[in-house]
Amino acid sequence: MNAPMQSRTTAAYFVQAVISFALATSALALGIAYLPVGAWMRAFLAVGLLYEITSAFTLAKVIRDRQEAGEITTRVDQARLEKLLAEHDPFKVEGI
Questions:
Q1: Distance between CA atoms of residues 48 and 44, nearest Å
Q2: Is residue 28 classed exposed, middle or buried when 0-12, 13-18 and 19+ CB atoms within 10 A define those classes?
Q3: What angle, 0 to 180 degrees and rounded to 10, lies between the N-to-C axes of helices 39-87 and 11-33?
Q4: Distance CA 46, CA 66 (A)
Q5: How far, in Å, CA of 58 to CA of 94, rounded?
Q6: 20 to 30 A Cα–Cα from 3, which one of 21, 62, 74, 96?
Q7: Residue 22 has pLDDT above 90, yes or no
Q8: pTM (two decimals)
Q9: Helices and strands per DSSP (H, E), number in the chain
Q10: What is the DSSP string of 39-76?
Q11: Considering the chain, what percentage of its residues have pLDDT values greater than 70?
Q12: 10 Å Cβ neighbour count for 53?
């Protein structure tokens, strides 16, 4: 049995994701800074932006952790199955 292939991200994909995140965060922060509203409203929106960013990172970590836990369980189950198949002798007759 072959282990499932793990997808690896390229350096270009990683850089694109970082740049995209930085641009989106910067654009939203600038938008909040230049809104024609009071300081309290801007502060509230800035706190909301920070909360959204931390929530996104937490969600990504939880999803990654669940996926890794599933992969470990799959590998353990696969190792057990391979051990059972290796130990099984179809030509062995019990009781003789």
A1: 6
A2: middle
A3: 160
A4: 30
A5: 55
A6: 62
A7: yes
A8: 0.60
A9: 2, 0
A10: HHHHHHHHHHHHHHHHHHHHHHHHHHHHHHHHHHHHHH
A11: 91
A12: 14
Say how far apart CA 55 and CA 33 lie, in whole Å.
Answer: 22
The single-letter DSSP state of residue 4 is P
Mean pLDDT of the chain: 85
* CA separation for the pair 19, 42 (Å, rounded): 25
Q: Which two tokens stand for residue 59?
A: 């969600």
Residue 5 pLDDT level (bands cut at 50, 70, 90): low
Residue 21 near residue 45, CB atoms below 8 Å: no
Residue 38 identity: G
Distances (CA, A) of 28 to 20, 22, 24, 53: 12, 10, 6, 11
Q: Which pair of tokens denotes residue 57?
A: 């990172």
Strand, helix or coil for residue 28: helix
